[in-house]
TrEMBL record:
Pathway: Nucleotide-sugar biosynthesis; UDP-alpha-D-xylose biosynthesis; UDP-alpha-D-xylose from UDP-alpha-D-glucuronate: step 1/1
EC number(s) recorded for this UniProt protein: 4.1.1.35
Protein name from the UniProt record: UDP-glucuronic acid decarboxylase 1
Single GO MF annotation: UDP-glucuronate decarboxylase activity
Residue stretches of biased makeup (Basic residues): 397-409
Origin species: Lates calcarifer (Barramundi)
Length: 409
């Protein structure tokens, strides 16, 4: 009996020994390979990671996730804050700075901006989107600030004039305070509206403007004027580097469809087969720049050494009637052109003097009107399609717009 037990145990032991030996061998091999891996330096491992990443990028499902961006060295790569970056101009600026390889943080309260305008960057390692109102202070580390946050078209800035004032005053103070604290350079998106109802044509940067401080547009015009004042106070008193762009009428994809401006009105009317409404004879002129021209100008100005205000706009004037005919033909629309009584207070001309930008930045608009219009028409028609697919077709708010004076903006 005893012998049997011993024999069994030793048999078991022999089997156990074999098992233990096998386990030890496996453990040894595993350890050895881990050790070897650890001995590979970190750089090599990151390189390896990039190679696998690149392989992933070669397959279409990955490469289509983000548009390809440039790779900048640490010296050239900047941390850039764009306030109002989910808006029309801001989102195009975001695209350019991302493609150029910078780290972009968009701050927006989505008053008139949309997440959709920047959705193609969400999740990208160089991109950050913060839902924040610039009227509240913000603490982040950045090298440059493009300060665009502000409603921009009359229906939007007149919707809540007090908020428009707060955004342009307190919001600008907050951003200048941030610039001072972190030593960043700030570019203010100012406007041609600082010239008000101008008495000189075309307007150059020396002109002080002609603004009614208590008129319906004052919340915006005076808000931007005092925002400029703040920039120069911070520059003189605190040494903050500032750039001021006085932006003239701009159009392009992602612009607001129902903002009552002449280009968006005509495109919408033409696409929907409604009459294109021209106030007066249609001989008033307007000048519009395409958004990509503006964005190039903003980036050039930011990186220049010009701290005084610079006009950015397209001096090429067209009559309202020319716009109507051109848009009608590009849309291939059966719409009629309808003439309505002249609107009072409708400025006859508005045109930028861009000699300063030409001379000091080497900048001028290059996108032909027709090309810009085609792209904008494409965007509008896709938007209308989306709306139709959702069974939701909001009409332009005609009743609301009529309350104010109808005018071509
Ligand atoms: N589009 C033009 O023709 C034009 C002309 C002159 C000046 N500008 C200036 O350019 C800038 C951008 O204009 P846009 O046409 O892109 O208008 P937009 O309305 O599309 O963009 C403005 C953005 O600012 C955001 N915003 C508004 N208030 C904010 C707040 N308190 N905090 C955070 N975000 C806020 C909005 O949500 C929006 O995304 C504005 O400062 C505007 O005054 C534009
Ligand atoms: C700006 O830079 C240019 C050359 O880069 C120089 O000639 C010019 O003097 C500078 N201007 C100011 C105001 O510093
Ligand atoms: C714009 O579109 C029209 C028709 O849709 C086309 O004939 C024209 O060549 C386009 N122009 C430009 C500059 O792209």
């Amino acid at each position: 009996m005893m012998k049997r037990v011993i024999w069994l145990l030793s048999g078991l032991n022999r089997r156990m020994m074999k098992l233990l030996f096998a386990l030890a061998l496996i453990a040894y091999i595993a350890c050895k390979s881990i050790q070897e891996h650890a001995e590979m330096n970190i750089e090599q491992r990151i390189d390896e990671m990039f190679i696998t990443k690149e392989i992933c990028l070669l397959s279409p499902s990955f490469s289509q996730k983000y548009p390809p961006v440039k790779f900048l060295s640490e010296k050239d790569r900047k941390r850039i804050l764009i306030t109002g970056g989910a808006g029309f101009v801001g989102s195009h600026l975001t695209d350019k700075l991302m493609m150029d390889g910078h780290e972009v943080t968009v701050v927006d309260n989505f008053f008139t901006g949309r997440k959709r305008n920047v959705e193609h960057w969400i999740g990208h390692e160089n991109f950050e989107l913060i839902n924040h109102d610039v009227v509240e202070p913000l603490y982040i580390e950045v090298d440059q600030i493009y300060h665009l946050a502000s409603p921009a078209s009359p229906p939007n800035y007149m919707y809540n004039p007090i908020k428009t004032l707060k955004t342009n005053t307190i919001g600008t103070l907050n951003m200048l305070g941030l610039a001072k604290r972190v030593g960043a350079r700030l570019l203010l998106a100012s406007t041609s509206e600082v010239y008000g109802d101008p008495e000189v044509h075309p307007q150059n940067e020396e002109y002080w403007g002609h603004v009614n401080p208590i008129g319906p547009r004052a919340c915006y015009d005076e808000g931007k004027r005092v925002a400029e004042t703040m920039c120069y106070a911070y520059m003189k008193q605190e040494g903050v580097e500032v750039r001021v762009a006085r932006i003239f009428n701009t159009f392009g994809s992602r612009m607001h469809m129902n903002d009552g401006r002449v280009v968006s009105n005509f495109i919408l009317q033409a696409l929907q087969g409604e009459p294109l409404t021209v106030y007066g004879t249609g001989s008033q002129t307007r000048a519009f720049q395409y958004v990509s021209d503006l964005v190039n100008g903003l980036v050039l100005l930011m990186n220049s050494n010009i701290s005084s205000p610079v006009n950015l706009g397209n001096p090429e004037e067209h009559t309202i009637l020319e716009f109507a005919r051109l848009i009608k033909s590009l849309v291939v629309s059966r719409s009629q052109i309808q003439f309505l009584p002249e609107a009072q207070d409708d400025p006859q001309r508005r045109r930028p003097d861009i000699r300063k930008a030409k001379m000091m930045l080497g900048w001028e608009p290059v996108v032909p009107l027709e090309e810009g219009l085609n792209k904008t028409i494409q965007y509008f028609s896709r938007e209308l399609e989306h709306q139709a697919n959702n069974q939701y077709i909001p009409k332009p708010k005609a009743a609301r717009m009529k309350k104010g004076r109808p005018r071509h903006n």
